[in-house]
């Protein structure tokens, strides 16, 4: 029995997309392997690439995230920011960024923007409530500008994402 070509193509495409979904690591694994540099900051650019910037603004590590990983990383941010983050990253797949120069030297919109009003390590509005996963706490929503601002034992990363100008200490 011969399969129609359209069915064969559909089968192959679904196999390819299923295997690429299986390759997506849990984003907490990706973050935990990140260089622990006190002056550094993690930033998820609008291209879907999570970059570690050192204190001098150089990219010291990068991770091209898939859509599920992007959603997972953004879920670490306060509930107030979720709608803005979901809109900004709708349809974004960082795995499509393959140019090494763009990964290491990103253009405008892919660099963390400093919020001049954000104070280092100042809690705001209490902890994020998430009954599904206690690890998603944003460390009592402590704001940060660099990893060194995050002092609690389980909160060692300062993370920023897309259009959200504030950095938050992350627990992964």
TrEMBL record:
Tell me the keywords, alphabetical order: Signal
Q: Where is this region: Disordered?
A: 112-135
Signal peptide from the UniProt entry: 1-18
Query: Mind telling me what this protein is named?
Result: Uncharacterized protein
